[in-house]
């Protein structure tokens, strides 16, 4: 109000926010700019390795990496499918458990005071310490130890995010619902949960990539003899650095695709709600 | 029986600060009473005690002879806050339906009633707008429609137009007056604006600074229905001055003093 110029005319109604969030530059720049940045990184990579004569067993050239990716595409693809299964399960279980936990926490300070510190402690234990336990608990050549690691990496950030998303409610809304004699379930269902949708999508975006990393780390440390993480170990042990980087590239591309899928889902849902 | 009766009502915050001191106030059914006073004098606190959102320290409140809790759980108390407090993910009509929905009445009758009330507050064509697509005044109209859908016994308004610009505020005063004349609902209205209080009310209750106590209750005998032109009537100025004098703790003067040039 204070910074609108005083024209002496009746103030126009505040401009309604457009229902869809279109930015200047739009999609073209969204794709062009990161592509340029990536190309710059690739160019630097290639130039550095070539001009500094870095030996291949230390770090491969970009073109060797791409060759390796083409040569090993079938292997990498089938390993990727295994890793994706583990990541998907870790993602699903991690998020569901986190949402359940957060829902309990916002209704019971007692539960939060009891179990949140436990969650923090679990989070501080390095994955390497967990892996033997997971291998003992789950059948050896199953996917479950890897799923377990993916879960462990996914759960905590999801729990923290969702607890905050469900807890942070406009105090005025809470007062309104209390005045209207709403039950706790109604407050959860009609106030907390819809209000936490943006937090939910932030959580899903973070955990979509974390669960993939978790699955690979799981294969690396708890290794069931399959998946991208296992391939990484074997490629590394045989000093096949182009393959290591080829697997890394495949992982990154997959992570980006998953991230974009979640972001697209978020846009669709938020647009339907006009946010 | 008074629609709202406060008897010797005291309230202190948990930190020991006393907000309300021995409030005695009876509001008749269908009466429009404004509460005016310095910031932090406990006017909003009084509304919340009446609404059963805060519990009094001593003394009590009765709504139609019963404790506020009975009225609240029967959803007969409606409140309009300074902020519209609309649910941002709901369009206007579902926002208005919320009180009925929480009462388990989510049906066609509720939907048509919501549309009817939106038309009544002048938003007949905005039922499908989201709050973000409406102006501040429009949002507050939705909040008023939401309060009315409960068919409340008492309507508590906590500086409902305080965040609006003067022009919108005047429009909202008009709209509220017309609705009140139609429904004859009991209104307890907190404001910082003397003009608004005088224009709308049957009586204006003036509070002292914290701890809030009633300094005086001023009758506003202006004829009804009140039209905007009355704001320029000498009797209107006179009443404004009486409220101002009460706020400042002066004895009311028949005419404002004129500073003469020597």
Q: Would you give an account of this structure?
A:
The complex is a heterodimer of chains A (about 280) and B (about 260). Chain A is mainly α and about 280 residues long. Chain A has a single domain, classed as MetI-like (MetI-like fold). Chain A has helices spanning about 25-50, 60-70, 75-105, 110-125, 125-135, 145-165, 170-180, 185-195, 195-220, 230-235, 240-270. Mean pLDDT of chain A is about 85; it is low at about 1-20. Chain B is an alpha/beta fold and about 260 residues long. Helix content of chain B is about 35%, strand content about 20%. Chain B has eight helices and nine strands. In chain B, strands 5-6-7-3-8-9 form a six-stranded mixed beta sheet, with helices on both faces. In chain B, strands 2-1-4 form a three-stranded antiparallel beta sheet, covered by helices on one side. In chain B, a hairpin with a 6-residue loop joins strand 8 (about 205) and strand 9 (about 215-220). The interface of A and B includes residues 13, 180 and 186 of A.
Task: Present the secondary structure layout.
The complex is a heterodimer of chains A (275) and B (262).
Chain A: H1 26-51, H2 62-71, H3 73-107, H4 109-124, H5 127-137, H6 144-167, H7 171-179, H8 184-195, H9 197-222, H10 228-237, H11 241-272
Chain B: E1 4-12, E2 18-27, E3 32-36, H1 43-50, E4 58-63, H2 68-73, E5 77-80, H3 92-102, H4 108-120, H5 136-148, E6 154-158, H6 166-183, E7 186-191, H7 194-200, E8 203-207, E9 214-219, H8 234-248
Parallel strand pairs in B: 3-7, 3-8, 5-6, 6-7
Antiparallel strand pairs in B: 1-2, 1-4, 8-9
């Amino acid at each position: 109000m204070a910074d609108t110029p005083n024209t002496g005319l009746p103030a126009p109604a505040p401009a309604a926010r457009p229902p869809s969030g279109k930015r200047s530059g739009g999609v073209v720049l969204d794709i062009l700019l990161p592509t340029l940045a990536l190309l710059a990184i690739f160019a630097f990579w290639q130039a550095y390795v070539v001009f500094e004569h870095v030996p291949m067993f230390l770090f491969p050239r970009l073109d060797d990496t791409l060759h390796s990716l083409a040569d090993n595409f079938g292997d990498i693809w089938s390993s990727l499918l295994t890793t994706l299964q583990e990541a998907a399960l870790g993602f699903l279980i991690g998020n569901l458990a986190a949402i359940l936990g957060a829902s309990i926490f916002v209704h019971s300070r007692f539960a939060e005071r009891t179990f949140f510190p436990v969650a923090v402690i679990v989070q501080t234990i390095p994955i390497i310490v967990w892996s033997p336990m997971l291998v003992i608990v789950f059948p050896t050549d199953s996917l479950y130890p890897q799923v377990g690691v993916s879960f462990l990496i996914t759960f905590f950030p999801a729990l923290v995010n969702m607890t905050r998303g469900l807890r942070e409610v406009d105090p005025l809304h809470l007062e309104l619902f209390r005045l209207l004699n709403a039950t706790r379930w109604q407050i959860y269902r009609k106030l907390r949960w819809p209000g936490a949708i943006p937090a939910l999508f932030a959580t899903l975006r973070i955990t979509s990539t974390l669960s993939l990393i978790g699955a690979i780390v799981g294969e690396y440390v708890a290794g069931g003899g399959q998946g991208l993480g296992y391939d990484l170990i074997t490629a590394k042990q045989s000093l096949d650095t182009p393959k290591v980087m080829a697997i890394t590239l495949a992982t990154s591309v997959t992570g980006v695709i998953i991230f974009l899928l979640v972001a697209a889902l978020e846009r669709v849902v938020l647009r339907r709600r006009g946010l | 029986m008074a629609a709202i009766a406060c008897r010797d009502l005291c309230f202190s915050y948990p930190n020991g600060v006393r907000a309300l001191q021995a409030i005695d106030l009876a509001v008749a059914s269908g009466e429009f009473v404004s509460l005016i006073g310095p910031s932090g004098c406990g006017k909003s606190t009084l509304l919340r005690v009446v609404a059963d959102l805060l519990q009094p320290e001593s003394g009590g409140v009765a709504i139609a002879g019963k404790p506020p809790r009975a009225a609240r759980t029967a959803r007969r108390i409606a409140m309009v806050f300074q902020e519209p407090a609309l649910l941002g993910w709901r369009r206007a009509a579902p926002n208005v339906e919320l009180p009925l929905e929480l009462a388990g009445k989510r049906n066609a009758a509720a939907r048509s009633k919501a549309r009817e009330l939106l038309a009544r507050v002048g938003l007949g064509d905005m039922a499908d707008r989201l709050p973000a697509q409406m102006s501040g005044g429009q949002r507050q109209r939705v909040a008023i429609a939401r309060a009315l859908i409960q068919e409340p016994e008492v309507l508590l308004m906590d500086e409902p137009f305080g965040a609006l610009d003067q022009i919108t505020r005047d429009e909202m005063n008009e709209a509220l007056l017309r609705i009140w004349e139609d429904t004859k609902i009991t209104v307890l209205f907190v404001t910082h604006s003397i003009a608004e209080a005088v224009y709308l009310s049957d009586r204006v209750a003036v509070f002292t600074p914290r701890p809030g106590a009633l300094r005086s209750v001023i009758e506003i005998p202006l004829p009804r229905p009140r039209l905007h032109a009355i704001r320029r009537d000498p009797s209107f100025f006179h009443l404004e001055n009486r409220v101002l004098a009460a706020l400042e703790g002066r004895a009311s003067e028949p005419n404002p003093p004129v500073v003469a040039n020597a």
